[in-house]
């Protein structure tokens, strides 16, 4: 049986910065590897066809959520994302009835943290509150973006994995431009990786301090 081949044409179909999943043993042409490096499409080998299918599916999955203030924009973005070929996991709200944004933002953040979705997008009235909530979840780097510059910077410099938007301050054309820019901007790595690693170190330090404090309280109770 002949081995599968990854060509330049197949790499061109990927979004810049997105992973390129192939079966282990796939023959990768020189042009395909060169283009993947240029566009920062990391080539990841999968051990089985089942793993390949699962990872390809998750790479196109976006966790989407909103409170009542972001419901209308969320519904519009859902259509936009589906038309762009993404699989949307809608975590609500499902109407304009009042709900609490922390509940929905947490669902979106957990979906990204657990690997159910590669990206998360949360819309509330302004976008700030949901960003605060999502960033409480270890491993989440949420960014509140309001134009193309903040969208590009949050991905290129900060490797953001959750985007928060303000449904009451953004028109649909503004929001789709931000979302498109955010999804298509790869993380630059290099010196920025060093800085993102420091963000992770801060997170880990406070997690360790919390565990130590809980352990101390337990020992005192005994």
Give structural notes:
The protein has 222 residues and is α/β, with parallel strands linked by helices. The chain has three domains: 5-57, no CATH class; 60-183, Ribose 5-phosphate Isomerase B, Chain: A (3-Layer(aba) Sandwich); 193-222. Helix content is 49%, strand content 16%. It is built from nine helices and nine strands. It has helices at 8-12, 30-38, 49-58, 71-83, 101-113, 128-134, 148-156, 172-183, 191-221; strands at 5-6, 20-23, 27-28, 43-46, 61-66, 87-90, 119-124, 142-144, 162-166. Strands 6-5-7-9-8 form a five-stranded parallel β-sheet, with helices on both faces. Strands 1-3 form a two-stranded parallel ribbon. A two-stranded parallel ribbon has the order 2-4. The relative contact order is 0.11. The mean pLDDT is 89.
């Amino acid at each position: 049986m002949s081995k599968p081949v990854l060509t330049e044409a197949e790499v061109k179909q990927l979004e810049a910065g997105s992973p390129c999943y192939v079966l282990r043993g796939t023959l990768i042409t020189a042009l395909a590897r060169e283009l993947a490096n240029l566009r920062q499409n990391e080539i990841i080998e999968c051990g089985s066809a089942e793993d390949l299918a699962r990872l390809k599916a998750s790479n196109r999955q976006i966790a989407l959520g909103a409170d009542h203030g972001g419901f209308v924009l969320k519904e519009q973005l859902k259509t936009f994302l589906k038309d762009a070929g993404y699989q949307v996991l809608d975590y609500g709200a499902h109407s304009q009835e009042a709900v609490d944004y922390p509940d929905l933002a947490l669902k979106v953040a957990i979906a990204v943290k657990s690997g159910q979705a590669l990206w998360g997008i949360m819309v509330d009235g302004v976008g700030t509150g949901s960003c605060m909530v999502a960033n409480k979840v270890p491993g989440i780097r949420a960014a509140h973006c309001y134009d193309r510059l903040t969208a590009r910077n949050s991905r290129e410099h900060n490797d953001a994995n959750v985007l928060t938007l303000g449904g009451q301050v953004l028109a649909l054309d503004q929001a789709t431009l931000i979302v498109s820019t955010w999804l298509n901007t790869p993380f630059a790595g290099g010196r920025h990786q060093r800085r993102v690693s420091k963000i992770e170190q801060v997170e880990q330090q406070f997690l360790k301090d919390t565990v130590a404090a809980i352990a101390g309280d337990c020992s005192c109770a005994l």
